[in-house]
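user: can you give me the structure for this one chain? tokens are fine.
assistant: on it. calling the predictor now.
[tool input]
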Amino acid sequence: MLYAVYPRKSQKDIIFDYDKSENYYIFDEEKKISSDAFKISYIFNGNIKKLQSLDFVFTNGPILVSEKIQKILQSEVDKGFVQFFDVTIDGYANELSLKALHVIHNEITTNLNESVYEEDDDEFEFDIQILNDTFEWDLSIAKSKEVPFQLVINEGLKNRFIEGDVKNINLYSKIDHFNDKNSIVLTL
């Protein structure tokens, strides 16, 4: 089964700084990128204790990940599926070693035969999104082609997240955008 990764709760402690960041759109590209090709900057104005409880920090820019996630995803780095990059966080010394996550591959992740959606010029608007059982090739993590910025993992990586005690994320195999009670979700 594939799972879309979402935060359990939104956070506003770290906000992407568009003014100080350069070439951040490169994270949307489906290729490895060089660390000297961009600058990623955030503003910290929140609660350090809250941040210490997050393994994924979903922001209005690239996703930040904890050192725990960096270790869990080391084999994905070795396979060329993801990259991690240093970031600047104004107002925060980055004691948690947060890094920006770049997921290299964009893949078809949604079962379009079972999902309910409207399509306009290859853009999808889902009422109900049901994820595929697997990726089309031996991949453990990707961005969804159908839903921009949606991070998707496979069953094996989900199990590594559970074994690694990853916290404060929801893993959806079915997302009902009208009635979340009908969604199928695993809460970590």
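assistant: here you go. The longest helix spans residues 155-163. Residues 3-187 form one domain.
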